[in-house]
Amino acid sequence: MKIEALIALALSALAINAFAAYPDKSIKFLVPWPPGGATDQVARILVQPLTKELGVSVFVENKGGAGGNIGTQAFVQDKPDGYSILMATSSTNAAGPHLFANQGFDAAKDFTPVVLVCTIPNIMVVPASSPWNTMKDLITDVKQNPGKFTYGSAGIGASQHLAGAQFKTVTSLDIRHVPYKGSGPAAVDLMAGHIDMMLDTGSLNNIKAGKLKALGIAAEKRIPELPNVPTMKEVGVTMVANAWYGVMLPAGAPKDIADKLNAAFNKVLKDPEVKQHLQAIGAQVDGGSVADFTKFSQSEIKRYEGIVRMSGAPRE
Question: Which residue in 15, 152, 222, 295 has its CB near the most CB atoms, within 10 A?
Fold first, then answer.
């Protein structure tokens, strides 16, 4: 056998052994948003069962800023060896390319999709102390006071921003946008009454705790966790807005590693306790193959071009 063939065989054997050993050290689960928001909540529900399933520690690292772009920019520079995984979102990996002239990464080329975790609808929430108890109250008051009221978001391009811009467009209301460095900080200010409303994906626990009031859900149908809260369509606002959350690796990650992580996530997502925790924050649990999420994530980049245009959100 020629020396070149022996070398190739040896390298192949090393690669196979490396894949077989994966993972053999802790895994960073990067959340490109501050703690407390929906993306962070989803990731933290998954880390403990993933640690058990993979046999190594999986830990969340938050790196927020610039609508999820700062953390995601850093992530795509990581080695594609499976020890750095990303909680990607529809904000950063689908809407972002149509909102930012320069995101600092290519949503179509800089990632290896692993699995779609879940989707969560946006819910119109206001402070518990707000005089508004229905969507009609909100709309009537805002119409009578154009430019007076504010809506918060996790930042330019976040699902709250797009949903809020879409709400403004379909209702012809004049509401000022206040971007934050994550939906967690925005929710804190909302509960304190510093902003007036938010179409959010991560507020279900605060609604249940009585800290926020839910006026409408931007979904096709009511959700089991809030059976008495109408959809936007039911109150005459024709809009549907939700956010998706999925796991990705940097571009160039070996197929074996992506497949192994996909299998682990799918097993975790089928766990009744995990499903219960995700559903408790309003999530619809997904899962599926690497191929499924690859096709979905690429199609979402195209689909969000129309969503961004319809929302009226400006390009930054």
Answer: 152
**φ, ψ for residue 68 (rounded to 5)?**
85, -5
Q: What order of strands is seen across the sheet that includes strand 123-127? A: 198-200, 123-127, 212-217
Amino acid at 74: A
Q: How far apart are CA 192 and CA 127, in angstroms?
A: 7
Residue labelled with tokens 């997904």: 286
Question: To 5 degrees, how large is the angle CA 234–CA 282–CA 31?
Answer: 130
Amino acid at 212: L
- Tokens representing 224 are 């089991």
Residue 131 clears pLDDT 80, i.e. is over it: yes
CATH code: domain 123-235 is 3.40.190.10
- Just give the CATH number of 3-119+244-311: 3.40.190.150
Residue intervals in the chain for CATH 3.40.190.150? 3-119+244-311
Strand partners, 150: 176
Distance CA 120, CA 114 (A): 19
pTM over 0.90: no
pLDDT tens-digit readout, 190-206:
999 999 999 999 899 99
CA distance 40 to 185: 12
Q: Delimit the CATH 3.40.190.10 region(s) of the chain.
A: 123-235
* 246 token code pair: 């999925």
- How deeply is 208 buried, as exposed, middle or buried, from its count of CB atoms within 10 A (0-12, 13-18, 19+)? middle
User: Within a 10 A sphere around the Cβ of 294, how many other Cβ atoms?
Assistant: 17
Instruction: Return d(Cα 16, Cα 95) in angstroms, integer.
Output: 37
